[in-house]
Fold each of these.
Amino acid sequence: MSGTGTDTTGRRGTLTGLLGALRGSTTAWVGLALVAAHLLVALLAPLVAPHSPVENDPANALAGPGWAHWAGTDQYGRDVLSRVLHGGRYALMVSFGATVLAVALGTVIGCVVALRGGWLDNLVMRVMDAVLSIPPVLALLVVVTVLGAGPLVIVLAVSLVYTPAVTRVVRAAAQGVAPSDYVTAARVRGERTTSILFREVLPNIVDVVCVEFAMRASWVILLISSLSFLGFGANPPTPDWGLMVAENRTAITVVPMASLAPIIALATLVIGLNLAADGLSKAWGVDRVRKGRA
Amino acid sequence: MLSFVARRLFSALLTIALSSVLIFLALQALPGDVASQILGRDATPEAVATLREQLDLDQPAWQRYLEWVGGAVTGDLGTSLASGEPVAAEVGLHLRNTLLIAVVTILVAVTLSVVLGVLAGLYRDRWPDTLISGLSLVGMSVPEFVVATLLVLALSITVPVLPAVVLDGPSASIGELLPAVWLPAAALGVAMTAYIVRMARTSVIDVMAGEFVTTATLKGLGRWRVVTRHALPSALLPTLNVIAMNIAWLVGGVVVVENVFNYPGVGSLMLQAVHNRDLPMLQAIALISATVYVLCNLAADLGAMALNPKLRSREQVGLR
């Protein structure tokens, strides 16, 4: 796991760094634009959707694309386009919450163990390895069995599942920063760990953390959609892409759009996140490819 | 060298032990009385009492944990709450079926992706690379249930050559299951291929920029020789690691894909166990997956060490 967050080139600072990377990379730009478009649609869905996403209309069930329903209707006569426009809201909300939590937790833990080292580092990484060894879908299914599939449970469970992987990456990056002169200087000045963490280490690994965020977000969305597909996420009749594919899969020969539209929506969102992660990591020189999908 | 292997073995065992504790704790965290939680609100007191006895709930948790682990080590994983059969036999049968998919997936994905990855690396930034890299980006951006759905649409409905749903039970013979293996394996293989292609491409680009490749070319070695002697091995080595790292995710993918195709493997068994709140079964499957993951990573580490002399000597230096 080589997070090369130490090749400081002067342009640090989160926002300037991000803007600089964007200017240099079409890939990152396209990726972030795709994600932004999805966020915008999710926000504005109630305003722009032509129909209610949950209103049944049995008379018009399983209709093909037409003027009244641009993408047709599903088996209950619900408007597919409206459902697709609304369908990202659950996944985006839950995924965003879980990713923010996982990346924040992983960053703090990773930095602290990298700075402290010793037995604490050993102990924490042992536990993290143990969590990593339990496959995410499996861990989530266990949690859902025990605590139910409420959104809060899913957010907490997903963030716990992904924290170890983030911790590993951030720890590696922070270990690259920890021996540098300014950290030593801060230590000699007698600054506290929290202050060293936020003022010396964190600003220097912001790039690693950003790439990590985009990458984790793409996996979390895939995981959450898969859970919805399996029936452990959004509850019917809530419009959700994963759930929509599960509902309309059997009718795919009759109304292919009802399955294909949510698939396209989900794919473009994740492709956007992956492009952003690729572009940013390339612009910043963070090695992304050599990471498995844990 | 030997002490490195021993240390690595010990740490693998420790990780498995720790994850068994985590799994046990997670499943014991059912709020309230476990027995009445499993049976639901309408359960009769007698049924709850029977289940309590069956699960040994009157004993303290640590004692139950030790009994569970002790049993697991000797191959006794408890009794399924749903079927009343021994968990080990049932999981074993389903595990065989899932292994069938896994082996096909890994073989196909690795072969395909190493070829594509080397191609992309050799034709860096030209159209074969653009095409392969673009496809692998899409491949890693669509979840298994989407790939599975599209595959069914293409190969079971439009051109009906492969079965969309498996009708065989878990005890069907391998020969009977074989026609049903291809679509699930393909659905799983897409994302895995995408990841390995990216890895292999980067390794090839790194290697081809290396000095020994320039030397080999200057020495008059043909391009084909350079590729087979230098590019291919370097692309193969890191894939070991990716496969090991992807095992955890493969298990998750298996749950989804087996659900789509109704394939009688561990994934389907796991979903059944979730619906039935069959704790012994869930515990067993989680423990087995964790063990498989740790062992695969162990194998990948040791394999990489055996194949890469540089790594071997560095470890020796590090140990002195």
Amino acid sequence: MKFNTKVKNILLVVFATLALSACATQKKAGIDGDVYTGKDTVEYLASGVPDRIFFATNKSSLTTAARETLRKQATYLRKNPKLNVTIEGHADERGTREYNLALGERRANAAKDYMMTYGVSGKRISVISYGKEKPVNTASTPLAWSQNRRSVTVKVK
Amino acid sequence: MTKGLIFSVSFHLIMILLTALTLPFMIREPIDLPPIVSVELIQISDKTNIPYAPKARKVIEKVKEEEKRVVSEQAPPAAKAKEKPDRIPLPNESKKEKKIIKKKQNPEEIKPEIRQSSEFEKKEIIDTNEIAALIDKAKEIEAKTEREEKKLTQSSVKNSFASGLSLSEEDALRAQIFGCWSIPLGLPFDEDLLVRIKLQLKKDGTILTSEILDHERMNKPGQKFYKILAESALRAVRICQPLKVPPTGYEKWKNIQLNFNPTEMLKG
Amino acid sequence: MQRIIVISLLILYFSTSISNALIKVDITRGNLDPLPIAVSPLHVDPSSTNHKDVKVKQLGEDISKIIENNFRSTGLFNPLKKDAFVQKPDIAHLKPRFEDWRLIKAQALVTGKLLIKDEKLKIEFRLWDLTASKEMVALAFTTTPSNWRRVAHIISDKIYERLTGEEGYFDTRIIYVAESGPKDKRKKQLAIMDQDGANTKYLTLGNELVLTPRFNPANQLVTYLSYFRNLPRVYLLDIETGIQEVVGNFPGMTFAPRFSPDGKKIIMSFAKDGNSDIYTMDLENRIVERITDHSAIDTSPSYSPDGKYICFNSDRSGLQQIYVMKSDGTNVKRITFGDGLYGTPVWSPRGDLIAFTKVRKGKFYIGVMRTDGTGERLLTENFYQEAPSWSPNGRVLVFYRETKSGSQGKGFTAKLWSIDITGYNERKIKTETDASDPSWSSTLSK
């Protein structure tokens, strides 16, 4: 009997710890931290070359996934030397308008700079910031905001 | 003896004069003397109207008809910046920049019949009204105002040794005035404003005279708020009258001073 | 001789004892109800003639309604219902029966008369203190009849000034961005209206994105951000002639423009290579000056009314905070240290306060603080609101508020709101369309 309760207690503690750690690492659907990792809004420049990368709130630093995407874009651009692109920087609706404009510009340039280090000429890339003016998901939810914190590479016709 | 009498009389006179001078309320006129208000005549020009707005609507309609060709209703930016991307405009380039910008903004790709909303002809803009004669301060009407009778507060000597109202009497009076006083809400809440009003009352609690003790402050520039507050306090006592005064002891309270201080209320 | 001394002492004694004996009562409380005021319809002179579409018979009533609306919107006055008015407008204007007006609990009364003759509108008004039975102000105006709304606002200003000690702000306009359409394809146009929402005029057609319009001190020019040809640049619009031009024609995005208090310069942000700094451009000689030089984002600059300082928004500390510097860019000082983000600082026209937007724990606040960052007061909390702009007397803020949208982006609205700097009297301002980015003009009649 005594032994049983001990086992019970130990089991309880183990489960509790497991449950807690599960909480800590559990990912919300398609969001890591607050960076979007899903594919819902993503379009493709070419097969296997996603057009956009996502950012954390108020950040313009590139995530590992973003770098990978940008390397693909850079490769694609090097293969198509006549193609020019515009990188559009965007922010979510949870910031003041003017600051968001600056933030969008900083995000777009972060993407541009990275591509330049992979051999794409800066002359082929222009940037524009839309701040919070052009959301891709118009809902007011954390998911929508994470999808809107993005920079999108658009081919110039 | 006569010498002494003359001496005494003249000294008394001097003393009385001095007291009168040092007791401001004895010689001062009641504050709420209505000034003669004249009506200022002010010309309002059409200057700031937006004369082209109706036209804008026409343009909108026009543009809708020919939407395909329209690039923009706005003037296009003057010549694209030809500078190298790295260059930041410097002060010494300003002349050059000015030229670029001053180039008139008539884009070839917009057909002439399509008007930019920004291109309204001067003719339609200029208003026929005389402008600027805004502050034509011709005096139109001289408002008549009656002078209130000047009444001196004659403090009698008998009045002297009164110690005041009892607490409950004071509370009753205070509560009454609380109800009558509309604190001007527009006052700055972070300034210390205190208005002292001295009243002379009749036996039934109605007001014989009212006087603002620091009333020279009222017409000083930069003391607008004080004036507003003082006026509100005067309104309060007038609305309240007859004041709730004790049935007895008239001599005690026939002269009474009220100190109005809204600071606590305004701080909320 | 002794007698003389005794007598004079006695006189002195009594003269002081009188004031000593005076009963003093401290009044520290009153009611904070708005001041009851009666606005009598203006008497229309029967010899008046109609002028174009101005219906003169209605005009007396209409003007008094505008005045009432203005008063009500301040939260400081309570305009009384007209059904209780006993005296006819013409007689009331000559000599009100004060007892009658006091009976309906009015403390102040506005009367007036008007006449339209020879294409001219003549309006006269008086403000009466009903408790003191005296006149407080009397003024007359002449103008073109089509200007009658402005006269109503000017009258409101004069009365407001007389009753509050502060400059009125009714004869003013608000420029803003009129919004329509779905959230991801918003059509945005510059629009201008009277402070009370009347006379809306659209200044651009909405073919391209326009943002953050701001008046110059003379209210004739507007600077704003336009995405014309997909080049976001600062523009200048003359609202009288309709002429537009680029002022921030830099090799990159220029944004967040605002006029200097003398109207001679535009201060704005210029973003290049991912870094936004603050620049000024002299409108006369087009000389550009760089004010900040920092790798962080510096934006939303706003001058102090004396032009000596600039407050702005920077994330140089890592997060968006408010800073103040001298107008030449030296002496940069951070003034906000509270938890949360701070944006859109705007210096009050009185010079004593800075209004701002604060973001904390997912909520947006409009607040004011002293120019050194102390004395922060948050006036209103909401899901999303920002961009305060001051009334010319520094008493009221206008800003815009967006509502949360549902999963499909439905239910999204953007509206203008105003609030008193005491935090009282929050009001929605009526606009024909959705609206954002308001900028309050200075008083037009100055």
